[in-house]
Amino acid sequence: MGAADLVPGVSGGTLALITGIYKELLESINAVSLENLKVLKKEGISAVWNKINGSFLLAVFGGIISSILLLSRLLEWLIKNEPIGLWSFFFGLLVASILYLFKSELSPKPINILYLLFGAMVSFLITQLNGGSNQDSLWYLFLSGFVGISAMILPGLSGAYILFIMGVYQTILSNVRQAQDLLFQYDQDTFFTVASILGVFILGIVVGLKVFSKFLTWLLNTYPERSIAVLIGLMFGALHKVWPWQNTFVDTLDKSFAVFPSEYKGGNPEIGIAITFMVLGFGLLFLIERSKALLTK
């Protein structure tokens, strides 16, 4: 999920959904409440830890944070130097996810198809927005964290892309890199700058995660099939953003559109590499499902 959230166009929520932890993740986040924390004195840490599903949350968010710290530089390098292979992999994974979820989680009723198309339209329209200018004010960074995490836990809506649209993607990525550098070369002025930017951004994430997860849990419990249909639609509508062959518009370098390999203007279309990584991404879903089946035995 952490690796996916770093890539504009890909959602960590997609990985949560296809690995089968999506609903448990939302319910566990909702369990972290003042009501459960109030019983800390009476029942002790162990009881509260069990109520909030602490081990699960620690494993998931530990994995997300570790992935962001370890892979941020690598993914940034891949986006710049090996974009076709990277996007092909995620495209294959996303296509396999849509097909799998449609088959396993959704009955092909007309009303479900309508909700799926609605989700696809919303996702497509959001991905047509242009990137904003860079914003560094603390209130705006808080808002970016709040909105960005809402997208990150929605399958098909990329939190990284939302941050790009809001103009803070490079700011956050740059400060994550600086935080890593501080571990080896400490500088007090840099530390306070990085801590204030990332601290406010993370606060926005925490508040947004709590508010939005409660809303999503209510939707999934009240309208299960329709909610899943919209979530699958969100993934479907984002497919064009992870298509490996993209040309940029003449008037702006921030806007791109999907094209056939024969029309690609970014150099060698690397069709062989693209097909290989699409197959790897497609096959990864079934490897994940196979692993889940073995673990549940």
Radius of gyration: 20 Å
How much helix is in the residues? over 70%
Identify the strand order in the major beta sheet: 1-2
Low-pLDDT stretches: none
Write up this protein:
- There is one protein chain.
- By secondary structure, the chain is mainly α.
- It has one domain (2-296).
- The chain is 73% helix and 2% strand.
- It contains 14 helices and two strands.
- It has helices at 2-6, 12-18, 22-31, 34-37, 40-51, 54-81, 83-105, 110-126, 138-152, 159-166, 169-182, 188-222, 224-237, 271-296; strands spanning 246-248, 256-258.
- The protein has a two-stranded antiparallel ribbon.
- Strand 1 and strand 2 (256-258) form a beta hairpin.
- The longest helix has 35 residues, at 188-222.
- The radius of gyration is 20 Å and the shape is globular.
- It starts with a helix and ends with a helix.
- 35% of the residues are buried.
- The model has no long low-confidence stretch (mean pLDDT 81).
Task: Map the helices and strands.
Layout: H1 2-6, H2 12-18, H3 22-31, H4 34-37, H5 40-51, H6 54-81, H7 83-105, H8 110-126, H9 138-152, H10 159-166, H11 169-182, H12 188-222, H13 224-237, E1 246-248, E2 256-258, H14 271-296
Antiparallel strand pairs: 1-2
Helix pairs in contact: 3-12, 6-7, 7-13, 7-14, 8-13, 9-10, 9-12, 11-12, 12-13
Concise structural overview:
This protein has 14 helices and two strands; from the N terminus they run H-H-H-H-H-H-H-H-H-H-H-H-H-E-E-H. With 297 residues, it is an all-alpha fold. It has a two-stranded antiparallel sheet with strand order 1-2.
Record keyword descriptors for this entry:
297 residues; mainly alpha; 2 strands
